[in-house]
Amino acid sequence: MFGVDELGMDLGTSTLHIVVRGKGIVLSEPAYVTYDRQTRDVVAVGEESRRMYGRTPAGLIVERPLRDGRIRSFDLVSKMLRYFMRKVVGKRAAFRPRLLLALPGGMAPSERQTLVDVMVDAGVRSVVPVDESVASAIGAGLRIDQPYGRMNIDIGGGRTNVSVFSFGHQIVWDILDVGGDKFDDAIIDYLRKKHNLLIGARTAEELKVNIGSARMRGAKLEMDACGRSLVSGLPRAVTVNSEEMIEALDEPLRELMSALHKIIERTPPELASDIFDEGITLSGGGAQLFGLAEVISDQLRIRTTLSDEPDMCVAHGLSALIDESERYENIDLVSGGRSDAMRED
Description:
By secondary structure, the protein is an alpha+beta fold. It has 11 helices and 18 strands. It has helices spanning 47-52, 74-89, 109-121, 132-139, 180-195, 201-211, 242-248, 250-266, 269-278, 292-300, 313-323; strands at residues 6-11, 15-20, 24-30, 33-36, 42-45, 60-63, 66-67, 70-71, 98-103, 126-131, 150-155, 160-166, 169-176, 197-198, 222-229, 235-241, 280-283, 304-306. The strands form 5 sheets. It has a 5-stranded mixed β-sheet with strand order 3-2-1-9-10, with helices on both faces. Strands 13-12-11-17-18 form a 5-stranded mixed β-sheet, with helices on both faces. A hairpin with a 2-residue loop joins strand 7 and strand 8. Helix 2 (74-89) packs across helix 3 and helix 5 (180-195) packs across helix 6 (201-211). The radius of gyration is 21 Å and the shape is flat. The protein starts with 5 loop residues before the first strand and ends in a 22-residue tail after the last helix.
């Protein structure tokens, strides 16, 4: 794809998306890396690596270099980003593109700068950091530049970004340690305690996606979960239903609701009134949990709607920022800093 002059990257903890000016999303792959334990040479990246998860020999390790909104290994992140960049711009691009890089909120300045350096090393001309929460809100269709309060809850793999916008600024924002990974961990813990069954993260994610529920469904769904019995030590399967998933996910959902209550309490009255009138928007892959929007609506007593393609909102937001830059020139791309003052390192 020679001739790419500007692109955006959603560096998610579970999935990475790359968008190109005028073309939209050109790459979506799991943020997984497989490497050799001894040499640390990378064996596989992306979807190929994810398929190897839980099935590799002792000499290979499959990792997500980013987890819980934090970078666990800069070396692996660097190798992963180089791989994906080559897939998009080629090994010898005609010229170095400019990159809008969506990053997890709350990332330390030193971590941001290291990622900027990695991307410049990987072949980009300059890097403009963008808060995930800003890109997500734009991708969800919120007019955050207007003089009205708009609230977006972005539930990602590692964390949840909650932001209240007005005049293009994040007036109130917080980062919650609740996300899709925590839902998976709760399901693993539930099956271990109730069924004496140890399952892997991949099985937990499949249960969450297929029968996971935040509230009662119209019909009870069932799914077999395969793992290792903690009693016999042998492989075993148990049938789990969607009502059990409600019980399994109760604790992280209570934690989420409690945090959202506190954020609403911190929101200035006029903006809170706007949010009550306009409602809350849900985005992020974790927001697709069945019944979650309805549960938030009931708990906060504010209409809550799930955005279109919630797992793609950050990528769509980056596309909008690239393709319609004039429309968003007065928006703060990073909390605490004006977009027109952003340094391109």
